[in-house]
């Protein structure tokens, strides 16, 4: 009986669409059940954010190259970071590292406004066209050094950094994050970082370590040198 039940469960999963299978196996079964986040991921076709030669990797449980030495994070990491960021409908969010715009699109469905910064202009241009073609209108795109933040439109309720920094960019966070605001950023060496949650309490940052991770380098004044 046990073998029959296991076969039935496996067969049911195999009949799901790739996006539903991804959400079931890589998000919900790993403990992330936030309904707003799951709905945002379900309504965002991940394959649309991959170059033509990489679409077959869209729903796999791993990061994938997107060109220019950059990667798109695995679905679970996108879900985990977004979940721990705790984005609310009234929030203004800063994303550092647009990439292909997948994380951007997820954030746009959870927040009031998203500002996203990318240093690689071709990636930014493609993400702009991709996001616009999906009818998303609450994202503002900037080209430049994301490690400086965007003090001209700060403060932000939430900040998410999608590349690994050698150390906490304290000055940037204090200049860009609202009182009580939350930032998520990978901190550590080029080989492995610790995904870190930082909450602004006055002029200090309260730190919580989440899990080990591995991202491409955060390049810029408050990151790694190119």
Please explain how this structure is put together.
It is a single chain. The protein is globular. The strands form 2 sheets. It has a 7-stranded mixed beta sheet. It is of the alpha/beta class and 226 residues long. It has one domain (2-213): Vaccinia Virus protein VP39 (Rossmann fold). The protein has helices at residues 2-14, 18-27, 35-42, 75-85, 102-108, 121-133, 170-176, and strands spanning 64-67, 70-72, 92-96, 113-118, 139-143, 156-161, 177-188, 193-201, 204-213. Helix 2 (18-27) packs across helix 4 (75-85). The longest helix has 13 residues, at 2-14. Helix content is 31%, strand content 27%.
**N to C succession of SSEs:** HHHEEHEHEHEEHEEE
Reading off the top of the CATH hierarchy, the class is best stated as Alpha Beta
What number is the mean pLDDT?
94
Query: Would you identify the CATH architecture?
Result: 3-Layer(aba) Sandwich
Strand order of the largest sheet: 5-4-3-6-7-8-9
CATH topology: Rossmann fold
Count of DSSP strands: 9
**What profile does the largest beta sheet have?**
7 strands, mixed
Contiguous low-pLDDT stretches (5 residues minimum) are 4-9
CA-CA gap between termini = 59 Å
Percent helix range: 25-40%
Choose one word for the global shape.
globular
Per CATH, the superfamily is Vaccinia Virus protein VP39
Query: What portion of the residues fall into strands of 2 or more residues?
Result: 25-35%
Rounded to the nearest angstrom, the radius of gyration is: 18 Å
Number of domains: 1
Tally the helices: 7
Class inferred from helices and paired strands: alpha/beta
């Amino acid at each position: 009986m046990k073998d029959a039940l296991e076969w039935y469960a496996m067969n049911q999963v195999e009949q799901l669409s790739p996006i539903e299978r991804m959400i079931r196996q890589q998000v919900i079964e790993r403990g992330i059940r936030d309904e707003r986040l799951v709905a945002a991921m379900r309504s965002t076709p991940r394959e649309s954010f991959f170059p033509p030669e990489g679409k077959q990797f869209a729903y796999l449980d791993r990061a994938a190259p997107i060109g220019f030495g950059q990667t798109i994070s695995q679905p679970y990491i996108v879900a985990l970071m977004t979940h721990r960021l705790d984005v609310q409908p009234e929030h203004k969010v800063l994303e550092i590292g647009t990439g292909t715009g997948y994380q951007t699109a997820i954030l746009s469905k959870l927040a009031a406004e998203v500002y996203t910064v990318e240093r690689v202009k071709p990636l930014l241009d493609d993400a702009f066209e991709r996001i616009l073609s999906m009818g998303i209108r609450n994202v503002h795109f900037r080209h430049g050094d994301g490690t400086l933040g965007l003090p001209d439109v700060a403060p932000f309720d939430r900040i998410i950094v999608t590349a690994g920094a050698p150390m906490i960019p304290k000055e940037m966070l204090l200049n860009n994050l609202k009182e009580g605001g939350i930032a998520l950023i990978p901190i550590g060496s080029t080989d492995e970082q610790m995904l870190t949650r930082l909450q602004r309490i006055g002029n200090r940052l309260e730190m919580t370590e989440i899990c080990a991770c591995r991202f491409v380098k955060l390049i810029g004044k408050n990151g790694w040198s190119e």
